[in-house]
Amino acid sequence: MKKKGLYLVIMTLSVIFWRCDPDRYYDYFIINSCDEAINVKIEACSLNCRTKHAHKYEILDIQIEPNTTQLILSDTYFQPLQDYMIEYFFEKITIVKGTDTSKVNYVDKDLWEFKKTSKNHANSYLTVRPEDFENE
Length: 136
Prior knowledge:
45% strand, single chain, four-stranded mixed beta sheet, 136 residues, 8 strands, alpha+beta, four-stranded antiparallel beta sheet
């Protein structure tokens, strides 16, 4: 009988501590290393983009001037900081320079530089380069 009570207490405490986990904060930046402004269209999600229950929304026509860094999204998630969260928050990122649209898949986490700034906060940086717009 005592074991049952002990297990119940352990399970209850586990649930309490798990639910009290602090949010993790993510900031996503685009660095425009091109010699002219770029326009960015973002399709993001309020929940995991990989699920059918994700609520999608768009941020249209963010213009980023040459050689500048622009914050494009701040979001939170409850699990530990991970670099793959880019794929959870973003459905699609389209970048246009002049009349050229890049064919690069900017949702690919390997294109982003992930930096933890604390145990609960991380910044991720995507550098857009002139070669992203060269025809293949």
